[in-house]
Write a structure and sequence with these properties.
single chain, 336 residues, five-stranded parallel beta sheet, 7 helices
Length: 336
């Protein structure tokens, strides 16, 4: 059993920002990550939308985040996956890992992020970050005056295809059916945009390219005519779904219809003491900057929660004490 003030699950931008602030608050902080620190930054070649860094490699930004968090004493436990985060009857959280370690803490901050659903076609993984992307807002600016393809038929696919036309010279929107699932207004934006051409009843079969040049094209298969064609495109944006990694949270928590965790203004979930930041949280957009903002709030709120938790422990134990702590959380997202 490892004793900490706060355990942070995930070491992406949100997790490392939270670790920076909890470390600065002199809280003994553990950051548990199944791989190397960075999260989705490690799958991103360049970023140009992080303030202060007009253009930076994803892995370089990840290294800077990690070094900054460690500077304030955060302890990183890498290459070990978290299997569950459970609130125990005594009010403490037990964060368990696949190798059997248990981290005990009054508060936990879960920043486990989410996972874009992949097509699973040849060349997709090989060209991820080199033409293949799952985030138009993140990567659209790298495809100025280029031809790109978007796969999907829901709100995200239509919205991002429309957004991509700000940069790309031509956008092909590829959908396996003959009608979109997207809202009518987003469909109208697609149909009214002269830079978007819809390819119906078609799936992507293979991403073509080479390690030096990156993606050079996309092989398509029309499900009605059975015709196979080659699309000359240097970018592929995939929007067929996104899964929040909420499986580590034990017990019931409030969430939206897509499974994203609902929080209050302090980033606390419906489980008192369990804070959420980054892509896991229900919100409008998911960027490095919003993840860091969420995490800053979560860390400061967690510090206040832990202070009250320790005060109630000194005052006494039992259900009444725990209820007093939980009721001290105000609707405005602060603590009395």
């Amino acid at each position: 059993m490892r004793e900490y003030d706060v355990v942070i699950v995930g070491a992406g931008p949100a997790g490392m920002t939270a670790a920076l602030y909890t470390g600065r608050a002199m809280l003994r902080t553990a950051v548990v990550e199944r791989g190397f620190p960075g999260g989705e930054l490690l799958n991103t070649e360049y970023l140009d939308d992080v303030i202060g860094f007009p253009k930076i490699l994803g892995y370089e930004l990840a290294e800077k985040f990690a070094a900054h968090a460690k500077q304030f004493g955060a302890e990183f436990f890498e290459t070990t996956a978290v299997t569950s985060v459970t609130k125990m009857p005594d009010g403490y959280f037990h964060t368990e890992t696949e190798n059997g370690d248990i981290f005990r803490s009054p508060a936990a901050i879960v920043t486990a992020g989410g996972t874009p659903i992949k097509l699973g076609i040849p060349g997709e993984l090989e060209h991820a970050g080199k033409g293949v992307s799952y985030c138009a807002i993140c990567d659209a600016a790298f495809f100025k005056q280029q031809i790109v393809a978007v796969v999907g038929g829901g709100d995200a696919a239509c919205e991002e295809a429309d957004f991509l036309t700000r940069y790309a010279s031509k956008v092909y929107l590829i959908h396996r059916r003959h009608e979109f699932r997207a809202s009518k207004i987003l469909q109208r934006h697609v149909f009214d945009n002269p830079k978007i051409e819809v390819i119906w009843d078609t799936i992507a079969e293979k991403v073509e390219g080479d390690p030096q040049q990156g993606m050079t094209g996309l092989r398509l298969h029309n499900l009605v005519t059975r015709e196979r064609t080659f699309l000359d495109a240097t970018g592929l944006f995939i929007f067929v779904g996104f899964r929040p990694n909420t499986g580590v949270i034990a017990g019931h928590f409030d969430h939206d219809v897509m499974g994203y965790v609902l929080t209050d203004n302090a980033m606390m979930s419906s489980i008192p003491g369990l804070f959420i930041a980054g892509d896991l949280r229900a919100q409008l957009t998911r960027q490095v900057t919003t993840a860091s903002g969420d995490a800053t709030t979560a860390a400061i709120a967690a510090d206040k929660y832990i202070t009250r938790f320790k005060e109630t422990e000194r005052e006494g134990t039992g259900e009444a004490t725990r209820e007093a702590l939980e009721s001290s959380h105000t609707s405005a997202g602060g603590y009395t």
